[in-house]
Each structure stands twice: as C-alpha cells, then as structure tokens.
C-alpha cells in the first residue's frame, strides 16, 4: 500500500479525538441501530464503539474517555485503555477519526 507521503498519526492518551466533518454518527430509526456515514462507507458500530464515538468531541482526551467508560462499565481503566486506543487508532488510520493534542 502506498503512503503518498502521509505519516501515520499515533493516537496517545493525550489525543483529543473527534469526528471530522465528512463523518456522521446517526441513529437509524428504521433499524433501531447507530450508523456511521462517511464518503462511500456505511458502518454499523457495536454498542461499545458507539459509546466511544459519542465521547469523541475534540475536547476530551483519550484518558478522559477511558475514565468515563471505566465508570460507565464499572471496569478497570487498565483493562479498557488498550481496547479504546486500538479502536481509535484503527479509525484514525482509516481517516474516520481525527485527533489533536490539547495544549
């Protein structure tokens, strides 16, 4: 696969993920499921993915997202963190999530 000069953005605990303008998270009333709409893509994320995506507002860091999910799911942060980072990295690599680092 060609890189075309684009370097891979590494999602870290200090990243503030957000959905770019071309990606939309919507609830599909007909199917009673959440859907992600992107150019030439329709994705049907599972419930946990939707919970993560709903927290990707560009203000919260990955650490804050993990903290919130740990409370919501009553699970240890150390158990959740790798899965959240992996999910966000995959979506970032596919240009479905953008990240900035809060200053």
TrEMBL record:
Metabolic or biological pathway, per its Swiss-Prot or TrEMBL entry: Cofactor biosynthesis; pyrroloquinoline quinone biosynthesis
Which N-terminal stretch is annotated as signal sequence?
none
One Pfam family named in its UniProt record: PqqD
Keywords on record: PQQ biosynthesis
Q: How does it assemble?
A: Monomer. Interacts with PqqE.
Q: What is this protein called?
A: Pyrroloquinoline quinone biosynthesis peptide chaperone PqqD
> Which organism is this protein's natural source?
Roseibium algae
Q: What's the name of its gene?
A: pqqD
